[in-house]
Amino acid sequence: MTIVSTEINKNIAVITIDNPPVNALSHAVRSGVSVALKQVSSDQDVAAIIIICAGRTFCAGADITEFGKPPMDPSLPDLIAEMDQVNKPLIAALHGTALGGGFEVALGCHYRIMDSHAKVGLPEVNLGLIPGAGGTQRLPRLIGVEAALDMIVTGKPISAAKAEKLGIANKISHGDLKSDALEFTQDLLTQNKPVMRISDLDVKASTEVFSDFEKKVSRRIRGFIAPKAAINAVKAATELSFEEGLKFERDQFKTLVNSSHSIAQRHMFFAERMALKVPGIDKSTSVREINSVAVIGGGIMGCGIAINFLNKGLPVTLIEISEEAQKAAFERIANIYSSSVSKGRLSEQQKEQTLSLLITASDYAKLANADLIIEAVFEDIEIKKQVFKKLDDAAKAGAILATNTSFLDINEIANVTSRPADVIGLHFFSPAHIMPLLEIVRTEQTSTEVLATVLKIGKLIGKTSVVSGVCFGFIANRMSSCYGREAGLLLLEGASVEQIDNALYDFGMPMGMFSMLDMAGIDIGVMARQNMAAGSYDEKAFLIHDALVASGQKGQKTGSGFYKHEGRNKSPNPQIEQLVEKFAKENNIKRREITIKEIEERCIFALINEGFKIVEEGIAIRQSDVDVVFNCGFGFPRYKGGPLHYAEQIGFDYTLKRITEFAKEHGDRWWTPSDLLIKLAKENR
Ligand code: T1G
Fold first, then answer.
1. Measured between alpha carbons, how far is 305 from 295 in angstroms, rounded to an integer?
2. Is position 23 within any domain?
3. Which atom of ligand 1 is nearest to the CA of 277?
4. Distance from the alpha carbon of residue 276 to the mean position of ligand 1, in angstroms
5. 20 to 30 Å CA-CA from 379: which of 153, 210, 458, 657?
6. Is residue 520 part of a domain?
């Protein structure tokens, strides 16, 4: 296979890149294109040049695996500078997802033709970077500052239709891209169209444009450094010459590429893909066809789960116990689609079409043809066992029986059926149609085929899947309970609810522990602990949670919990102080001043220590899987990677030292350092 090849079609040269899987702009690609460009640029018989890719997509960016290694010429900016000097029409023919450096190559061309399903984007901010090959200088010149800021700072790709509207695509291909590109190029030559260098254009904007934009995105970019650098680079395009602007962009890029933020965000990019690599499963592993789905339970979770599959055109049978409950579930789902229609994300017709795939019923016989059945009933082991006994009788042979439980023993559930190999956990996070994480929990008996099937389904419905073994709380909630334990103890020891929440928010969490508990419902954790063996958690850490729920204060849904809630406004709940005083006294806890650092380290290191234990016990396959769970499930700041990557960033030694100190101060029952952490600390000294 030739990574870069050239063919001459009459008087048009076609340079084809073929570097699977995504035509990343590796050194071999850059060198190949540079050589090919030199040859055809000097060929008198060549009047115009097309750059196109084989495979599933135009170049999807620079080769991320090369970052952090010694640069190899030609660099991407150098290659695009060579393109800029070509004195013949240079056309980029785009399909798939032309992202990052790939889109920058297209912007280095004079014209662009896009397949109608293609997308273009500059997602570098997702990697803690900014476009480093002219994107921040060319895009604003082509589409204006506001549109360019939006694409570069959000990192979101746009469709071919939008690209045409913005002036990025000069032509849309609805047929064979290559032949359409040849025809388009021939038309340019016939019309004697000039070489259109974007670098020759100018761009101006008021300073308000930048300050207004920054205000608009401030929440989204909180804590990240790359978005601000991107805004500055676009601003440089309006203030400096093209060459000076390129240099400004390059300097910013070089600083970012070595930053802990980008190293962490690139770690997460590969971690999410590595999580899908399960030992014993590969492309040859058989999978089952999933053409219809059933969901048991039409509550918030059940409806959210159903929407994931409806969105992909799969028929869903939703089982609820009564006509009234069925109606309520249908309406809940319909309302979610209606809100998408009102936001312009969906047409009324698409909504109706999607809802036509949903049927509700109470009779389990209705799910006899379902290929995948997901139970989402009350978090009670006995109720779930009853449901699975009924499923075992009603479901067809080969149907996959999944439970959405967030912490119960799925081995126990599987063992009430005659088909334990077909039973698995699919733990969605609320709201199930929005949160990206899907925890796939395999039992001791789950078959490889069932596991491979749900991994494929997880990707189909756009989830970020992580495989877990069975333990109380699996990966996500087992770690979260340790993090919650320390927050509860700190409350008794002298910190306030607001102080703890603010410390965790300032660390980078999307919200503090108590705000999260109020949002999700304090009663969920209280119920979960009722299923835990006595002594398996630190009961005094959750005394206040139990007292609040006992008095009907379950959080936002009851207007009161750790905070008082009025609409979207929250204020301190005065009862907390009284409860804290009471329980601290009863437990002989002397309250004291507590620093932000202690709050942060006790909560985050508890998370880290448990995460390492989860890996050493084999519940998680690898460290980076734990990072994916806590970033995608709980919003652990992506610019810190995940909890275990963060421990590496601050030093395994320091992490171990502090955990050992906490063990001395608070007892080793909960603070015994993980053996894996001890090993890593020794190896990395
Ligand atoms: N470099 C190297 N490998 C890449 C890659 C890249 N840019 N993109 C994907 N891969 C690998 C990926 O690891 C996986 O490998 C396989 O390709 C399939 O990917 C100078 C500096 C294109 C939308 O950020 O968003 O350009 O696991 O599973 O779901 O300004 O990949 O099979 O071994 O994700 O169909 C900017 C990143 C780079 C795009 C396809 N570009 N990629 O999604 O497949 S920085 C990006 C994606 C840059 C310039 C800057 C997605 C995709 P393996 P996949 P997919």
1. 8
2. yes
3. 27
4. 15
5. 458
6. yes
